[in-house]
Design brief:
- This protein is 23% helix and 29% strand.
- The strands form two sheets. It has an eight-stranded mixed beta sheet, covered by helices on one side. Strands 1, 9, 10 and 11 form a four-stranded antiparallel beta sheet that branches.
Length: 246
Amino acid sequence: NTNADDTLLTVNVRTIAGQQDISKQAIERGTGIDQFIIQDLIRGWHTTLDNQILNGTGASGQILGITDTSGVNTVGFNEASPTVALLYPKLADAYQKVQTSVYQNPTHWIMHPRRLAFLLAAVDSTGRPLVVPTVNGPMNASATGAAQAYYGNSGYSLMGLPIIADANVVTDNGAGDDEDRIYCVNANELHLWEQAGSPFALNFDATGAGSLTIKSVVYGYSAFTAGRYPGAVSIISGTGLVAPTF
């Protein structure tokens, strides 16, 4: 019998909000204009939340995201002429570091769409692609595609884990401001709370009444932490992840 040991982990609730002024004439003379604007604001809200989950600094009202969480595993990939073959051992290293740190398997890869494209564009010495659909009966493939693709879930898997393609992965990392990152994560240790019903949408017609202006506002509350077990995350970075050429 061992007594549980606990450490205080502060997780701040953050407000994410956006607004847009719309002329009353556009709403009354157009068709569904206000709904288009609200839908765009709602998508922007989710995009901002996703961006802060990855890159938030924890300051100035931001969520403390995965990248800036103290204690995550790091893997360096520094190559002047990067290839998928050179990247592959680094992926395995990121995978095992999660297992070693938290005694659990990772569940997902998260990478920028350009990094997924880098994998998809790679071919062997005879011009055969290294990432292929499983329906083709792949042999010695680096990754495979079988699941239905939609934004976020790429439909491809690598080392048995689904690849999440996320354009919020920064592409200005490193000394040359041109590197992206690859995340290997156990999603069960990435904790997100959202206020029920978030985001909320409101229209105000009194603030700009003199100019017939309607203000549309979308806002919501959320909290996130990767700090309970930061070892459940491995981040690959380095000069080998500069912008690929196609």
